[in-house]
Each structure stands twice: as C-alpha cells, then as structure tokens.
Amino acid sequence: MCNCVHLNKIFNIKIIIARTTMGQWFNLLVCALIVLKAQAGFNVSITYVENAVAKGAVCLDGSPPAYHFDKGFGAGINNWLVHIDGGAWCNNVEDCSKRRDSSYGSSKHMVKEANFTGILSNEQKFNPDFYDWNRVRVRYCDGASFTGDVEAVNPETNLHFRGARVFEAVMEDLLAKGMKNAQNAILTGCSAGGLTSILHCDNFRALFPVDTRVKCFADAGYFVNAKDVSGESHIEEFYKQVVALHGSAKHLPASCTSRLSPGLCFFPENVAGQIKTPLFIINSAYDSWQISNILVPEDADPKGAWSSCKVDIKTCSSTQLQTMQGFRVQFLNALAGLGNSSSRGMFVDSCYTHCRTDYQETWFSADSPVLDKTPIAKAVGDWYYDRSPFQKIDCPYPCNPLPESCF
After folding, report:
1. pTM for this structure?
2. Active-site residue, 202 included
3. Residue 354 falls in the annotated catalytic set
4. For tag attachment on the chain, is the N or C end more exposed, with fewer CB atoms within 10 Å?
C-alpha cells in the first residue's frame, strides 16, 4: 500500500519536498495520480435559464442564471439533489462591480463544463446514498445568497440585484424538467451556498407535495455573529450592508425579520430554530473562512501577525490558538440556535478547512474526517433516510487525531 501525500482539494496541492530516492518519487507520483483520478469526477455541461431574463431574474450583469444538471437513473430517477455554489458576498457598488465582471456575477464568464465529484458523484463507491439521483449544481451569480430583489437598475453601474428571482426561476426550470415528480429532494450548498440552503430551506420544501421527503443541509454555511480580534463587529456590519444594498429584507425568513433587524437575519443562529424543514449542519468549529474573515479580517490585523496562522493552523502560537478556542465556544453557542429537535442533524468537527461535501476526499474516502467513526457522507445519508439520527460535536483541536484532509 502506498503512503500517499495529501492532495488538498485538487487546486491547492501540498507537496512535501524532501530527500527521496527515485523509487520514493515514483511511489509519490503513482499515489498522486490515484488520488487525482479518484477526485477527478466527470464534467457536466452548463444550462442557461434564458427565459428567466424576461422575468428580471438575472445575474448581477443582467445575464441569465445557469446551472449544471446530471440526470438520475435507476432507483434514483425521481430523487433530486440541488447543490448551491458558494462564493462570499458583495456589500457595496465597487465590490459588486468587480463581481459583475467575473463568474460570480455573470454567466458570460462561467465555464461551460463543471466538475461533479463528492456529493455530486454518479458512482456509488464515492457517493453511496445519492449517486443515482438527479444532481444539480446551481451557479452563484448574485452576491447575496439568492436573497436580493431591487427593481431599479442604475445605468451607470448596470448592477442587477435580483438573487431571489434567480432562485425562483431556477427552481421553476427544474420543476418543469421533472423535479415536480420528486419522491425525495435535498437542498444543499457550500459556504454562501450553504447559507442559501438555510435561508431558502422552507421555500424549497413548499415546492413539493406534502408526501415528498424534503430536507436541507448546509456545508460550511453556519456563519456566526462574532466580534473580531480588535473587538469590532465586522461581520455584523458587513451583512447589514449586503442586505441593504441587495434589498434582501423581504426575502429573509419572516420569523426572524418580525423580531430582529434584517441584517441580523443573515445569521443562521437567528433563523435556524424557526425553520420547519429538517436541517443538517456540516461545519468545522474552526472554519478557516470564518477565522480569516470574521475573527481576523485584514483590517483587524494591520501588522499581519495572523498571516501565517490563518493559512496553516499548525503554525499558530499558543496565544492565537487560545483565541481560536474562544471562537469555537462562540460558534457552539451560536449553534444552539439550531435547536435540539430530532429533525436536526449536525457534524461539527475540529478541522481547519472550509466546505467538504463537493470534494471527494472529504465527502467520502479513506481519508475523510470522521466523528464517532462515521464519515460525513454516511452521517448525512443515515439522517436523511431516517436510519439513525446524527448530532455530533468533536472535542477541541487538536485532541482528536485528524486526517490530513482536514488542513
């Protein structure tokens, strides 16, 4: 058996350079090829929702929304999994203008084919419970987790804040392609897409008959309202600006906006408890994006004291680790907003990473993170099919030996 070097999510390959023999280098190469082949998945062509333009359901630049769709087969022909891409948010005209000219704001800049792996894989050995389902990857192009809806368009910027309309148009297109006949359905997503799956969970459920099994799960989408290391409420102010710019208030859960200001209703801790649809949270208590952008945004670290630590948790000082342990406590306190209903599931580990479901290595492989000897894919599958509940929180870093895929 080869001792493979960890290949971190394909695009961030870590290679340890050391004195090795030719045989060891050959072994390394073989292992790398094996892992890359396992993660390669397959490509699926893009579909543009052209008729959405007439409804004003468009990306930031006015182009049509888009998704990638691989049809189900066999026993999964009437089962649907809709995965929402991530990609942060934009909170002002300048940032949204930059986003407008990229694949995160325009379908004109999107690749024509997208790789399907992890939870989107069509092979049972890589995706045991959902491999034969209809699997959809929705491209993210609005900058507000599909909540925005502003009618007016400034001709000088040509920015269209229409994310909520985009979500509705894409769902209508999928319903017409067979999703209306779903026996089982899932709404999920990564990062900002994970937040989308929380905010739109009950809306998604409402698309189906009462006898359809519908559930949602969010991957790295449980963003918490924590102060940064300088004591400022950076993320709270940021979300307030996102919601105001995009006109999101009317598309956020009324169960929250009736109690709190709209910006606070972008935080799952204020929304999740009122969601009626079964919901599963996959998250790290040391989520690398949240550490880098909520706990230690650039403005809170002008001298760059956290630069190395934010890249690799193994380089953090004891003081920095203590601060991160404090963040973990805040995260777990926020997670209490999910409630303890049996319809809720959670897989909260101590990895220093962000998003796991759309990477084969972390979704389901020999090196996947596990809690109670259970990898993420099995935990989610058991919960979805009511085989067994799953609500596990890992001990603090670094007490539990973690696989290299965690970093």
Report:
1. 0.90
2. no
3. yes
4. N
